[in-house]
Amino acid sequence: MIKLNQSRKFRKYYNKLIPGGSTFSKVEYFNDQNVPFALSKCKDAKVYDLDKNEYIDYILANGSVVLGHNNKLVNKAILNQLKNGISFSLPNKLEIEVSELLKKHIPSAEMVRFGKNGNDATTAAVRLARHFTGKKNVLFCGYHSWQDWYVGKTSKNSGVPGEISKLSHRFIYGDKKSIDKLFKKFANKIACVIIDPLPAIESKPNKNFLKYLEKKCKEKKIVYIFDEVVCGFRYLDKSVQGNTGVKPDLSAFSKGIANGMPISALVGKKNIMKKFSEIFYSLTFAGETLSLSAAREVLKIHNNLDIPSYIDRQGLRLRNGLNDLIFKNRLENKLKIYGSNSRLLIKFHEDYSNNKINFPQEWTKTVCKFGILNFGVSMISLKHNNEIIDKTINKYKYIFSDINKIL
């Protein structure tokens, strides 16, 4: 067993001061005595906890690290900018430089507004859509962070007024009937359709469905929004819209932009984006230059290197290795790998369940014991080379053996 004395001490202190944790997933899956609770150092594809245990990292700061931890080029860009200042009283040229790079890489980007989190970008997108159309209702599909219009339709909806929740309506990815019912029911009262174009469980985008939504939104004069916070600059062709040819009106990006630095961007068509001057969207730190300098460096690297294709290849290597081990351990009727190669999701097979087991907790304990950090989701970075992937697969020989015993 790994030693976790420092993690256990830190957990007690942390929970007394920070209720719920800084990010939901950090406390949901790692608030157990037998897993690490805090990390002290990260480099490339590896991280180290307070007790100096080493792990191959497949969480990657919730997918925000694409190049690998502690990238030298990004660090240098940040340090160079630090000499000239962090936050300015007026705009900085970095805002223009990063905007131009985003326009180059994202097909629908004609104008750009910055924020710090994906939540900023999606919140701004919905508000802008409501202003632009004069309508109130939001049709959505997928996960969209913690703003009221989305959370009001989840199990953690306490604190959200019912009046707001009533204006949001969920549809099913790939199901034309589910969206058509909402189109018919709310007719001329819909401001926007917002969708995660590559949900975690899907192996690839449903191009026909995304095209269908594009056509319907255009016909009904509804703002069409892509939430590419997770898949942007991680999936093939840098974005789902780049891969499928579907061109939304507005798009939210964040996690893949700056290799772990806090920044987001709402991009979109000029006729809608120019209406920003008529609504209130103002963030003191939207123009913070350390994150912008990191984003500029990352986006320049994307100019010269097809990072998403590399991530896809390495993810496929991991997928194939894990599938072989699932079969060898006779787990194929219990576990299944879902998702794209850039974001593998291991979960119970649809026709198998065991209510006596807290599977996410048992999974996390088992993989951490063998030096793997994830909670069922495996993200890939540029530093997950063949050696790292093969080492991971070798560790899973023992992980799946233990999981089989638990099940």
Structural summary, described in words:
This protein is α/β, with parallel strands linked by helices. The strands form three sheets. Strands 4-10-9-8-7-5-6 form a seven-stranded mixed sheet, with helices on both faces. It has a four-stranded mixed sheet with strand order 1-2-3-13. The longest helix is centred in the C-terminal third of the chain and has 22 residues. The protein is globular and about 60 Å long.
Summarize the structure.
This protein is of the alpha/beta class and 407 residues long.
Oligomer kind: single chain
Distance between the termini: 20 Å
Which regions have little confidence, pLDDT < 50, spanning 5+ residues?
none
Q: What would CATH call the homologous superfamily of the largest domain?
A: Type I PLP-dependent aspartate aminotransferase-like (Major domain)
Order of helices and strands: HHEEEHHHEHEHHEHEHEHEEHHHEEHEEH
Strand order of the largest sheet: 4-10-9-8-7-5-6
For the report, how would you describe the main beta sheet? 7 strands, mixed
| Overall pLDDT level | 93
**CATH fold naming of the largest domain:** Aspartate Aminotransferase, domain 2
CATH architecture of the largest domain: 3-Layer(aba) Sandwich
Number of domains: 2
Put simply, the count of helices is 16
What would you report as the Rg, rounded to the nearest angstrom? 22 Å
Shape: globular
Q: Beta-strand percentage?
A: 5-15%
User: How many strand elements?
Assistant: 14
Task: Give the structural class.
Answer: alpha/beta
The CATH class of the largest domain turns out to be Alpha Beta
**Portion of residues within helices:** 40-55%
